[in-house]
Amino acid sequence: MDRNEDALAPRAAHRRRPRRLSEVFATLAAEADGPITVGTIRDALGDRSFATLLVFFSSLNLLPLPPGASVLLGIPIVIVAAQMVLGRRTAWLPASLLSKSIPLDRFRTGSARLVPLLQRLERLVRPRYWPFWRRQGDRVIGAIALVLGIAVVLPVPLGNWLPAFASTLVGLALSERDGILFGVAVAVGLTSLAIIVAVVASAGAVLNLLWKTAGMHHWF
């Protein structure tokens, strides 16, 4: 009897393994018969809502989108990350956001692009070298994601993709407690912020030069 229980234990553990994020998105895309609401996605993500919501909203910003779309899609990242900093156990999203829907064909098109990327990343991600206690880690990662979410929202030309990618990596690292991926995510995030600062500083210098030039023409 004991031997049988020992033999069944690995199988039971395997069955209890949470579905990968790519599996969640693929299942939604395959089984849905109408528009996908944000509330439906949140319910499908289950008890790993912080990590998966970060990955979902961040990865949406990796898709080719109309100008200005990242401003809207970055707001949920900020909302989720702020709650992590505050120490909430489950993610809350406003009803107005939960009711927003994505047309099924667009969701399936987006999933067809995102799922292979997530699958490649998931093959590399595994629990290792996680430097935080659970609650402590959630707050630290929430602070990092909050900064990245604000960077995504900023209307900086071509400055949204890299912080969105870093936020996606942060969510994946949190979901699997992967310390190595967390380090990579922080490095990508710092690089993205440095690029944004450089772009803003360059734009400011150009505007200042134009202002001075306009002033000189005014005097002459």
> Could you tell me the mean pLDDT?
79
Low-confidence stretches: 4-16
How many domains, as an integer?
1
* Tally of DSSP helical segments: 10
Largest sheet: 2 strands, antiparallel
* Largest sheet: spatial strand order: 1-2
Alpha-beta classification:
mainly alpha
Proportion of helical residues:
over 70%
What is the 3D shape? globular
What's the helix-strand series?
HHEHHHHEHHHH
Total strand segments: 2
Distance between the termini: 98 Å
Task: Estimate the strand proportion.
Answer: under 5%
Structure write-up:
A two-stranded antiparallel ribbon has the order 1-2. By secondary structure, the protein is mainly alpha-helical. The chain is globular and about 60 Å long. α4 packs antiparallel against α9 (161-176). It has one domain. It has helices spanning 2-15, 21-31, 38-45, 49-60, 69-86, 95-98, 104-124, 134-153, 161-176, 179-219; strands spanning 36-37, 101-102. The relative contact order is 0.13. It is built from ten helices and two strands; from the N terminus they run ααβααααβαααα. The longest helix is centred in the C-terminal third of the chain and has 41 residues, at 179-219. It is 75% helix and 2% strand.
